[in-house]
Amino acid sequence: MVAERADVLPALAEVFREHGYEGASLALIGQRTGLGKGSLYHFFPGGKEEMAAAVLAEIDAWFEQHIFRPLREEDPRRAVPEMIRAVHGYFRSGQRVCLVGAFALVDVRDRFADAIRSYFAAWTDALAQGLERGGLAEVEARDRAEEAVAAIQGALVLARALDDPGSFHRAMARIEARLMSG
Amino acid sequence: MVAERADVLPALAEVFREHGYEGASLALIGQRTGLGKGSLYHFFPGGKEEMAAAVLAEIDAWFEQHIFRPLREEDPRRAVPEMIRAVHGYFRSGQRVCLVGAFALVDVRDRFADAIRSYFAAWTDALAQGLERGGLAEVEARDRAEEAVAAIQGALVLARALDDPGSFHRAMARIEARLMSG
DNA sequence: GTCTATACAGTGATAGAC
DNA sequence: GTCTATCACTGTATAGAC
Q: Do A105 and B156 touch (CB under 8 A)?
């Protein structure tokens, strides 16, 4: 039924997103992936830590392809609105959590420090580079990029806390407007 | 050595902040509070859930006293910079995490949904009210308040992820400037 | 009030049959 | 590859001595 490791990554990611690293028990993972522990350890000999690392790598690859690269290479007047649209879809209007951000807030951050840091650094860098190519000065571009990336994470926290997708919508609209102005 | 429940709340809060709800084991809590399980269950008959609820209540009370009330009652030209300063100190320049925000991102949110929602709602409301008294129109005040509260949460995520207090400093400066303008 | 001892379900992980 | 059985261990929680 499951041919390769990549086939279980989406379900795996969802479990980590919903329950966090500690909360994602192997029993739960087994249920949601439809795989027994034997199969799971066949695909991930390193156990839960390797599962989480694989999920983080896949997330990074997805963002690299759909968000970071377009920001670096395409016309920023198109890439920025496209980023907003992609983020909106990916995080399901704020009802889905950013796994990398959630990991950053607890002690598992130390275990995956490099992956977490590089994800946010790549995002900020790509966005800043796009804004700069769009005509902004370097410092202004970096400042806006850092603000926007943080604002997205904050919007996710707030939308989850208030259980209000509307607040996520409003936040994304603000972010887009601010990135595109000037 | 420990006279009342409130005496262990600070240590308790720190354990939850560092390890999250699932990661905060009773063994760890026992170490950090210096109390045995017997004592812990004497103070918190409801176990870990009651501990977390007590911590959330204490956090809410702290913010109510030091941030929400000043925003509602004092001159916003003074209360807003004071909020920035208080937030900066409370979160240790972004090296300390917001427990309420961290809880909001995982499934324990559902267990403490009311406390989490009311914390962020109270913050946003108090800030919006202050801005309005400062002369902003109602919709503009609410919009800026929501943005600022989310931005603080985002700044905490980013500062932890990048392990860079500098990004938190910059974010707080931006937030203050934006709240005080106009 | 604080401790130790303990119950017992659940944890991550391994071994081996198929 | 996938399963079941099982491991040693840790989890929360309780009981009872002091």
A: yes
